User: Fold this.
Amino acid sequence: MYEFVNPNPAANRIEDCTVRAICILEDMDWLTAYWKLCALGAQMYMMPSDKPVVKSFLIRAGYRAHSLPDTCPDCYTVADFCQDHPEGKYLLATGNHLVAVKDGSYMDGWDSGNEIPVYVWSKEEAK
Assistant:
């Protein structure tokens, strides 16, 4: 269910989870994802990882946002989400992290399976 994936060319694992998750989901290299977010951020006069920039990028790429329950003690984790979603592409957002999910596996530079997602972006693939 967890797959170590870090598309960052310098193997960095902090401050760039937005770029890493988009690389994984959109099958693009790190620099391409970074520059696309930078260009959109420049158009919006915002930083490339600001929520409105990421939201605009994802909507343009065909994703839709959905909220998730985030109440504990029965917290719904990234790992739980993957078990419930064996197919599809998703971007899970926790309070301070983004993680890519593809076909039931969460792909990240560290095991974020115990993180609690607050919302999810889902993408319907063309058939």
